[in-house]
Write a structure and sequence with these properties.
The structure holds two protein chains of two kinds. Chain A is an alpha/beta fold. Chain B has one domain: MetI-like (MetI-like fold). Chain B is flat and about 75 Å long. Classes of the chains: A alpha/beta, B mainly alpha. At the A-B interface, strand 6, helix 3 and helix 5 of A face helix 6 and helix 7 of B.
Chain lengths: 241, 221
């Protein structure tokens, strides 16, 4: 049980943003991905659940080749939850309905089952009081926690986080990080693309430093953040810390 | 008959005549809006999702319906019908032309509503395992509907008034019936005020319905 990324290349037109990335994330692991803007971190996440096609290489999720012709992506995505920088609430549905929609339509749960799941997940992220509210009435941090609950409602085996706190006001970052801490403490397998270096250091089993489409350094946080070996890593950490 | 022709005051019969005209206006509007909206939704979605080689020709054809005055479209269609030997009554011709005319405008309304749904929102839906069609049905259409409704209401009210053009192909609707009465009693201000009131009474419920839906959605969002 793992996400296995093998020599993946990805271009947008003539611009190559991921230039041969190889990395394995084992079940139960939390891997943080850090690096400057445009280093290809977010793109790699989109490739893992097939939202973006790749140009070469392979990505295996529990042995299934994500980009193979016959792969049922709708099915595969059920076990890979993803939360984006923009929380992407469905504005025409209440918080409860946002979370219930996919379990009902994709997993075919009954209304009562889906509601039970949604209430459980929303309570878990601290939104039990907001079930009947529309997303526009929530703060950014609350909307982002709703997005996390929405992904969790599909009972995914893996969770991908794409700079989920970058668009939030500073005072709202903490509540979202707390929710992610909770998940990691429960043993959720997570790939976290983040600029929150302190958070990465605290929750990750490993940290990968991305630079210009490649992984320059990967290892335990005590090494990559605490005692970086590569000059690019040292420069990057100097600029953000 | 002769005496009624010379009668120069507005009678109950005249009012009844105008109300029958209003009925024709409503029937024309009904079919034009049904047909125009159905076609507009299909064309609008096609225009939003298809490659340029489908999009461009479809857009060009619809541009013709938007650019040529409705009056000319009605007269041309009515003559064309005779030339190719389709034996449609004028009412059917009127409904078909009005529906096509409405569909050309409705297409753009639907297309812009469709494109107003952020790609990131659609990605979020797909990332939850929803299929393309589930994304369309549960995310894109409901959001697009809210964006498109105000323009659609405006278009519907416009089409209701545009139905007056069909008198050129021999249909007596509300405005034409008013003109007939004006010709006889020579009281244009009075008769047209009544006609205007009837138009208003027909439009008002549609406008109110639109405003109510908008208000409800705005409170939520």
């Amino acid at each position: 049980m793992s996400i296995d990324i093998q020599d993946v290349h990805k271009s947008f037109g003539s611009l190559e943003v991921v230039k041969g990335v190889t990395m394995t994330v084992e079940k139960g692991e939390v891997v943080s991905v850090i690096g400057g803007s445009g280093s290809g971190k977010s793109t790699l996440l989109m490739c893992i659940n097939g939202l973006e096609p790749i140009n070469s290489g392979r990505i295996l999720v529990d042995g299934t080749d994500v980009h193979a012709r016959g792969t049922d992506l709708n099915r595969l995505r059920q076990k890979i939850g993803i939360v984006f920088q923009q929380w992407n609430a469905f504005p025409h549905l209440t918080v409860l309905e946002n979370v219930m929609l996919a379990p009902r339509k994709v997993l075919g749960k009954s209304k009562a089952e889906a509601e039970a799941i949604a209430v459980e997940k929303l309570s878990h992220v601290g939104l039990a009081e907001k079930l009947k509210v529309y997303p526009s009435k929530l703060s950014g941090g609350q909307q982002q926690r709703m997005a996390i609950a929405r992904a969790l409602a599909m009972s995914p085996d893996y969770m991908l986080f794409d700079e989920v706190t970058s668009a939030l006001d500073p005072q709202l970052v903490g509540e979202v990080l707390d929710t992610m801490r909770l998940l990691s403490s429960e043993g959720m397998t997570m790939i976290v693309v983040t600029h929150e270096i302190a958070f990465a250091r605290e929750v990750s089993n490993r940290v990968a430093f991305f630079h210009k489409g490649r992984i320059h350094e990967i290892g335990p946080p005590s090494q990559v953040i605490g005692n970086p070996q590569q000059p690019e890593t040292i420069d990057f950490l100097k600029s953000v810390l | 008959m002769f005496s009624s022709l010379l009668d120069t005051s507005f009678s109950l019969n005249d009012l009844w005549f105008m109300l029958k005209g209003a009925g024709v206006t409503l029937a024309l509007t009904f079919w034009a809006v049904i047909g125009g909206t159905l076609l507009g939704v299909v064309f609008g979605v096609v225009r939003a999702v298809s490659p340029w080689w489908i999009n461009a020709p479809l857009g060009a054809v619809l541009d013709v319906f938007r650019s040529v005055p409705l009056l000319i479209q009605l007269v041309v269609a009515n003559s064309f019908k005779t030339i190719v030997g389709i034996n449609w009554p004028p009412f059917t011709v009127g409904c078909v032309v009005l529906a096509l005319y409405m569909s050309a405008y409705c297409t753009e309304i639907v297309r812009s509503g469709f494109l107003a749904v952020p790609t990131t929102t659609r990605r979020a839906a797909r990332s939850l395992g929803m299929s393309y069609w589930q994304d369309l049905s549960f995310i894109v259409f409901p959001i697009a509907l809210r964006v498109a409704l105000p323009s659609w209401i405006g278009l519907t009210l416009g089409v209701m008034k545009d139905t007056a053009m069909v008198w050129w192909i021999g249909i007596v609707e509300l405005l034409r019936s008013s003109q007939v009465i004006v010709t006889r009693i020579q009281e244009p201000l009075f008769v047209l005020s009544i006609a205007g009131l009837i138009y208003f009474l027909m439009s008002f419920p549609i406008a109110r319905l639109g405003a109510r839906l908008e208000k409800r959605w705005r409170e939520n969002e």
